[in-house]
Structure formats: C-alpha cells, structure tokens
Amino acid sequence: MGAVVEWKIGDYRQAEEPFYLPVGPEVQLFEAAAAGRLPVMLKGPTGCGKTRFLEYMAHRLRRPLVTVACHEDLTTADLVGRYLLKGDETVWVDGPLATAVKKGAICYLDEVVEARKDTIVVIHPLTDDRRMLPLEKKGEVLEAPDSFMLVVSYNPGYQTILKDLKQSTKQRFIALEFDFPPAGHETAIVQKETGIDAERAAKLVQVAGRMRALKNRGLEEGVSTRLLIYAAVLINRGVDMQEAIITAMIKPVTDDQVIQKSLTEIATTLL
Ligand code: ADP
Predict the structure, then answer these.
(1) Helices (H) and strands (E) in the chain, counts
(2) Please, are residues 107 and 149 in contact by the beta-carbon 8 Å criterion?
(3) CA distance linking residue 50 with residue 42, whole number of Å
(4) Among positive and negative, which fits the CA dihedral 112, 59, 18, 65?
(5) How far does residue 48's CA lie from ligand 1's centre (Å)?
(6) Residues 25 and 66: beta-carbon distance below 8 Å
(7) What is the per-residue pLDDT across 59-87, written as a single tens digit (0 to 9) for each?
(8) Cβ of residue 152 lying under 6 Å from some atom of ligand 1
(9) Are 18 and 59 in contact (CB under 8 A)?
C-alpha cells in the first residue's frame, strides 16, 4: 500500500519573517511552551491565522516546521514511517513525525481530530516527559531533542460526541485559543496581505462582522479572515465590491440560496 500522507517541511529560518499580527499574548505563551518543552494545541475556527502563527513562530524560534494534514485514513505508519520496496531492496522511509523528531523541528498535526484514534495514540509518548517515538517496525526508539515540539490544531466548532479528542489526548497539551481578529487588527491584516486601501478593508471586515453574528442562525461557521483576503484580491483585480463579497465571502460559506440572498442584502446595505 502506498503512503497516503500529505506533509511538507517548511524552513522559515532563512526566509523573510512571515507577517503575523499578534492579537493577544500568544507569542509569549508559545515561547514559554517551547522553552518548557510543552506540547501545544491551537484551537479555533478555520482560516483565522493558526498556520500563519506557526510559520511566524518557527521563524522566530529558528526551527523547521513539519506540517501534516490529518485525515481519517491516516495510519501510524503514515506518520512514523514504513519499509518500502525500492528495486529489489526494502528500505525504511521516515514519515513526517520521525523526520520532525530527527530534525528537532516543530511538528504540526493540522486537524488532528480527523485522524483515527489508534493513530493519535502514537503521539502520546512524545507528549509526556519520555519525549520519545518508538519505530516499532524498525525496532528502534527515537529520542526527541529539546527543540522538537508537537503542535496540533483543533476546531471545537466541528466536534460531535462521536468525533472528539479523548480527554487522555486533550490533557497532554496547553491550549491557545484563536478566533477571528478584532476589527482593527483584521483590517490591518487584510490591508497588509493584499495592499487594498484602509477604507475598503474596513468595509469587508464590517460585512464579515455582520455575517459572523449569524453563526448558529443558519451559518455553521463565521466567514474566515482568509476569505476576506480573497475578496480583497478580487477587488484589486477590478471585481466590483459587491460581486467580490458574494463570490469570496458568501457563496463559499453556505449552499443555502435563501441565506445567500439575505447575506447579500445585509452586505449591500453596508456598502
Ligand atoms: P488557519 O491555519 O487558522 O486555518 P491561516 O493561518 O491559514 O488559518 O490564516 C488564513 C490567512 O489569514 C493567512 O494566510 C493570513 O493571510 C491571514 N491571517 C489571519 N490571522 C492573521 C494574523 N494574526 N496575522 C497575519 N495574518 C493573518
């Protein structure tokens, strides 16, 4: 069976510092966790800055960042590694977790709750004071260097009783809570990311604020900062503001045409 794991190593040490606008004490808290070798959980809705924050922290702490997109078919072997046939030889190939441990990197398991329960268990020995990763198939145990750090993201909004992290997993992490940035911050972010003027950036944020107030009243989740940025990109390319809002901020978040229509009306009164 082929590997079905999607992962990448980002090396932000040499790169220009990624732009991240802190919203609270998250930078200091993360630094303290890194110094204290504590695992971290980033909680919050999609598209609100969790990945960008980690890219920024990886640069700040001068560590590589190994990112794994978790999904329900993810196996322990996908994370840890496996023997593969190469020609007529079998060779061991490290998975993202073993790679991150060896490199002393930050390992980011994005949407960890999507992974199977028996897969998640493999991170347990890395999250307590043992800080080790057993490569069972290889009969080897990797010891994590001080710079290795495990980070998971988790969106509490999506969880159901059937699909949630076990307390025995949750209680292995400190948790940093993320949400959509306050209006002033979000306006600055949209401006910085896209170069759009302050007035139109503020308008997009205002429309988003009204849409987010409708969460649980027809909308499953508020419109993300990422989508505001997409709307600004369209506007910069000459798309009319209302059209950009419909295309980037309304249609992606709901399939319900009645709700789409009322959101469009709300947006139009604000423009
Ligand atoms: P998540 O990982 O939470 O799904 P991302 O980190 O990919 O979301 O955020 C989506 C986009 O929003 C980023 O690419 C970035 O442009 C922007 N963004 C959100 N919050 C911030 C912030 N505090 N500082 C800078 N950019 C931000």
Answers:
(1) 12, 10
(2) yes
(3) 7
(4) negative
(5) 5
(6) no
(7) 999 999 999 999 988 999 999 999 999 99
(8) no
(9) yes
